[in-house]
Amino acid sequence: MLKLPGPRMRAREAGIQFAGLPPGPHNAITDVPGVRVGHSTLFSGSGKLVHGFGPVRTGCTVILPGPDNMFQHKVPAASFVLNGFGKAVGLPQIDELGDLESPIALTNPLSVPRVADALLDYLLEHNEEIGEKGTVNPVVGECNDGYLNDIRGRHVAAEHVHSAITRAAGGPVPEGAVGAGVGMRCMGYKGGIGTASRSVEVFSGSREEPTDVRHFNVGVLVLANFGKSKEMRVAGFPVGRFLVETTDDDSQDDSPDEDGSIVMIVATDAPVSSRQLGRMARRAALGLARVGSTAAHGSGDFVIAFSAEHTHPHRPEEMAGEREFLYDNHPGLNRLFTGTVEATEEAILNALFVADTVVGRDDRVVEGLPVDEVIDIIRAAGERLARRA
Q1: Which of 111, 261, 293, 307 is catalytic?
Q2: Per-residue pLDDT tens digits for 69-98
Q3: Active site residue 293
Q4: Residue 248 a catalytic site member
Q5: CATH superfamily membership of 29-314+323-388
Q6: pTM (2 decimals)?
């Protein structure tokens, strides 16, 4: 009987130590107030691939930035394309207008049109003026799950997108081989959904005598499907060099089809502009580099960043509005950059640590990361360093 992959520990719970800023209460993108995440997981069939029938190892993940009706209450946003070998929808308008008016959906590349169409259904249902007075910009990101999944079957349907939206919730976020992450591979092992957050303290005046202290959150969710095992770094250690190979990673060639991809969603409740969100989005690439990615030629590496701190109306009655933004040269913006880098790194590692082994089409197997072995490698390296000190 088929069963979904079982639960495994997140990187921090497994013993990986992360220096820097503290995580939020759930160490998830949902630590940003109002942000919700929902999954629809499609996992059926086994054995030989039959196009249109399976095996199915795919799904959809939806991130809701806060407002129930995002078309009417848009949030500041920006995107960054580190490497554009992908099929994302909706990014040009985000960058042109600096706002987000749709939930963000993640899936596989051949399901992007159907998922975008389902988002349109959802937005049209709640906004009668769409089509009468302008249109709307659905936002969809993707990674390729064709190694394990009957991707040509395009099994993700509107009902699955609507279900993910309905199920979207705050609090702890299911990770690993769930939702859009079911069929993903990362650095030679099972990948998928991962998330993490950082709590950021920002103050006016000096640290010794602050005149105002405020606390903000930076949360990141990733769909991780990139890289090779020999490139993997965990908490700064090049563990990929020492792992016993349990995948066919070395047999893969260097064609674009083997380079993989990642989508990174960055959320904050800090008062930042769309331009500043673009700067935060670019810092997510540094977190990606920390785990060993080189953004290969054939990789699709996309970042979407938004702030849930305030919204602006679709049709404002006033000519202009007043908003609070951090100064670019205030130290608080640097702390948001740091939080973005750190949360991205940990989110990717959480995807690797939580995702369990999956058997997919044609009985292909992608093993879960050998967590105990990784911990042993890092511990041994730490002991060697301690003896040298």
Answers
A1: 261
A2: 999 999 999 999 999 999 999 999 999 999
A3: no
A4: no
A5: L-amino peptidase D-ALA esterase/amidase (3.60.70.12)
A6: 0.94
